[in-house]
Write a structure and sequence with these properties.
The protein has 361 residues and is an alpha/beta fold. It folds into two domains: 76 residues, no CATH class; 262 residues, Vaccinia Virus protein VP39 (Rossmann fold), CATH 3.40.50. It contains 13 helices and 16 strands. Strands 2, 3, 4, 5, 10, 14, 15 and 16 form an eight-stranded mixed beta sheet that branches. A hairpin with a 2-residue loop joins strand 6 and strand 7. Helix 9 packs across helix 10 and helix 12 packs antiparallel against helix 13. 45% of the residues are buried. It binds S-adenosyl-L-homocysteine. S-adenosyl-L-homocysteine binds next to helix 2 and helix 4.
Length: 361
């Protein structure tokens, strides 16, 4: 039994079952034993691989997307460039390199990294500090980012790490799905009493059939609303990329360890724990806060529209045959519907009246 499992079993015995959201938060962010406290989870030797780790093209194209938004916003002199959950910093390093095309943007930007992992903060500092005249600032949450200036925000595979609540429909009533302890002292799912935390359920959701399950991510909804409010007040654009759908997905809680599925309650803290992103719900929260939302569109379509073919061709010109094959394979992995192209979606939040950003037209 992992140290975190022992702590959770004890806590549940004393204080009662945890919501799935509380469980997720403990597993990922526990100050001593949380998953993101352990080390670098990314890459072939880690637990999962993300788009910016697959190819530099991903971050470069997003950098050009930011350049385009900065120009459309009238080249403002102070830009708060925010990345939520920057991982190793690869996406941002590639984006900043591409943004050298417009030195005015590099001079205007202040980089803000929202990151909970001390190990990943160190990776980000090593990679990004040498690229910038003004050192980046790290934050525990988006609310800490200074409110002045125009906002450009990037979040790749961040919202999937935010805790979700799960509710099951039984005999005409909602029950919150909880994490409790079974007779053999192991963590187990159970349903709470009817009516738990009903206030969290948005009133316009149609109830699913008997036994159906829905997920709600209050942390994601309030974050999308906060980003939208910042854009409405000071101008800017946000690009959110993640796996998920336009609506709620049913039970999408999943753990991954060493690139393979892992039971979500086994050895908590040893595996990444995520849920699919409900883009429709995020879009609703951002629109209610007064911003305009574009997408979600499939990641493959988004990357094609912002020029991945041209970028791959340029890179291939100076490449060896082996490198050329790797560039083609990476492009296929990012864009192919059978790989990341359809499961992953991109969504943009911009000011009302702003034209659709590249990739969303
Ligand atoms: N965007 C990166 C990493 C994705 S993994 C990439 O595409 O490669 C998720 C990232 O979000 C990690 O950097 C993780 O440490 C960070 N993270 C997860 N939950 C967080 C939270 N609640 N607050 C701040 N950072 C968080």
């Amino acid at each position: 039994m992992s140290t975190l499992e022992q702590a959770l079993v004890r806590r549940i015995r004393i204080a009662g079952p945890l919501t799935v959201a509380d469980y997720m938060a403990e597993v990922l962010l526990h100050p001593a034993h949380g998953y993101y406290r352990r080390g670098d989870p990314l890459g072939a030797a880690g637990d999962f691989t993300t788009a910016p780790e697959i190819s530099q093209m991903f971050g470069e194209l997003i950098g050009l997307w930011c350049v385009d938004q900065w120009m459309r916003l009238g080249e403002p002199p102070l830009v708060r460039l925010v990345e939520l959950g920057p991982g190793r910093g690869s996406l941002m390093a590639d984006a900043l390199r591409a943004a050298r095309l417009r030195p005015g943007l590099l001079a205007a930007l202040r980089l803000h990294l929202v990151e909970s992992s001390p190990v990943l903060r160190e990776c980000q500092a090593r990679l990004l500090c040498p690229m910038l005249a003004v050192a980046p600032e790290w934050h525990d949450g988006f609310a800490e980012v200074p409110a002045d200036g125009v906002l450009l925000l990037i979040a790749n595979e961040f919202f999937d790490a935010l805790p979700v609540h799960q509710f099951v429909r039984r005999a005409g009533a909602w029950h919150e799905r909880m994490v409790t302890v079974d007779e053999s002292d192991h963590l187990a799912f159970a349903l709470g009493p009817p009516g738990t935390a009903l206030a969290l359920l948005s009133p316009d959701r149609r109830p699913p059939p008997e036994g159906g399950l829905i997920e709600i991510c209050p942390a994601g909804l309030s974050l999308a609303a906060a980003i939208a409010r910042r854009i409405v007040a000071g101008g800017g654009a946000a690009l959110i990329i993640d796996y998920g759908d336009d609506g709620a997905a049913g039970d999408s809680l999943q753990a991954v360890s060493r690139h393979a599925p892992h039971p979500p309650l086994a050895e908590p803290g040893s595996a990444d724990l995520t849920a699919h992103v409900d883009f429709g719900a995020l879009a609703g929260a951002a629109a209610t806060a007064g911003a305009a939302v574009h997408g979600p569109v499939a990641q493959g379509d988004f990357l094609q529209r912002i020029g991945i073919a041209a970028r791959a061709a340029t890179l291939a010109e100076r490449a060896t045959p082996a490198e050329r094959a790797a560039i083609a394979a990476a492009r296929q992995r990012l864009c192919d519907p059978g790989e990341m192209g359809t499961l992953f979606k991109a969504m943009a939040i911009v000011g009302v009246g702003a034209p659709a950003p590249p990739g969303f037209a």
